[in-house]
Each structure stands twice: as C-alpha cells, then as structure tokens.
Design brief:
31% helix, 2 domains, 9 strands, alpha+beta, 9-stranded mixed β-sheet, 434 Repressor (Amino-terminal Domain), single chain
C-alpha cells in the first residue's frame, strides 16, 4: 500500500536525519501525537498532516508515486482473456478476446493463456464466468487434474481427467448434473480430442 511505502520512506529519512517524533513534529508544524500515529500506523492521520510531514523531510510525493507506478508496471502485465479456441494448420490457437486482466509477471509465463469459462459443468471447482490460466506447455493429462481439451465438434471444454486404465481416459465434469466424455489414446492420436493444457489457476471475477 502507498501509505506503508510512505511510512517506510519517512522512517528511513528520520534515521538519516537523526530525528525523533518530537523533532519531526516541530519541523512539520504538527503535534507529536499525529507524527507518532502516522509512523506507527496506530490511528488515522489527515492527508494534510501527512503532506506537511513529507514536506518537512523534503520527500516529493509525486516522485514516490511515479516510482511506485514504474515498479508495478515492471512486476505486473496486462493479459488478454480469450473466449474460444480455434484449430489451424499450425495447431490450436486462442481467438475472440473477451476481457483483460492484470497478472504478476511471474505467473504469466510463455505458453500460459487466459480463457473465460462459460457454463457451470465444473461447479463448484470452477464457476461460470471464471477466468482460468492454462499452461499450454503441459500436454500430458494427469490423473484427477483439471485440463482444457479441444474437440473439433464441440470446441474447448474444461474437464477433470480420470484414467480408467492405460488406454482409456474419462473427461469428467465436477458438476454431477453433467455427463462425461470417454476417449482412448487412439482418439487422441486421430485428433478426435486434443489437449490444450493444464489449468494452473482459476480466477472468479465479480461484477
């Protein structure tokens, strides 16, 4: 939070200038209790009082805000959210941008795409309208994990994978009101169903 950042800067400047609460209060022209409340975060302090404290220590609020903006831009990135997937000669690719979210750079790695879920077949694990992050680098289904698959006749589906045996895989809905798909490894080889990737994160958006 900005208030915490300002508090840290003020503390550091007080150490550098060898100031205590009383010294800073005199410099800023405010009462000692207000300085203490701001530094310790024990009570709310008026914005004007904070501005006087910053001015007394020659701290440029605009400069602090600009540095924070630059830091956030370096740590976060805007990510397009897709509504569907399409098949081409090059393989599967996301189409139909329906939204945009901001994610930490460490999460949005190469090969990770954001996809908006429609329907409640995976409820309660993933609710209708949720945004899921899909790691398209992971193409090997894992038992009881949630993956996104593409079927030429149906499009993209989000399902939990259940291995019946070495040859048969069930794509199961968490919502018991919905059915399931059963495929063999041969079906995957023929392109009847394709693995898009593993769901690594689900984000529920509130409007």
């Amino acid at each position: 939070m900005l208030e915490d950042k300002l508090r840290d800067i003020v503390k550091q400047r007080m150490v550098e200038e060898r100031l205590d609460y009383g010294d800073l209060a005199k410099l800023a022209g405010v009462d000692r209790k207000s300085v203490q409340n701001f530094i310790e975060g024990t009570a709310g302090v008026r914005l004007h009082t904070v501005e006087l404290i910053l001015q007394a220590l020659k701290i440029d609020l605009r400069e602090v805000l600009e540095r924070e903006r630059e830091r956030e831009e370096a740590e976060y990135t805007r990510v397009k959210v897709y509504g569907s997937l399409g098949a081409s000669k090059e393989g599967l690719e996301p189409v139909d941008v329906v939204d945009e979210i901001i994610l930490p750079v460490r999460i949005k790695k190469n090969g990770v795409i954001a996809f908006k879920v429609r329907g409640n077949s995976m409820h309660p694990s993933i609710v209708d309208g949720s945004i899921v992050l899909i790691d398209t680098n992971i193409k090997q289904p894992e038992h009881e994990k949630i993956f996104v698959f593409y079927m030429p006749y149906k499009g993209a589906v989000v399902k939990r994978t259940i291995f019946l045996n070495q040859d048969t895989i069930i794509l199961k809905s968490d919502n018991e009101l919905y059915g399931e798909f059963v495929f063999t490894r041969r079906d995957f080889e023929l392109g009847e169903v394709m693995v898009v990737g593993k769901v690594i994160l689900s984000i529920q958006k509130y409007s």
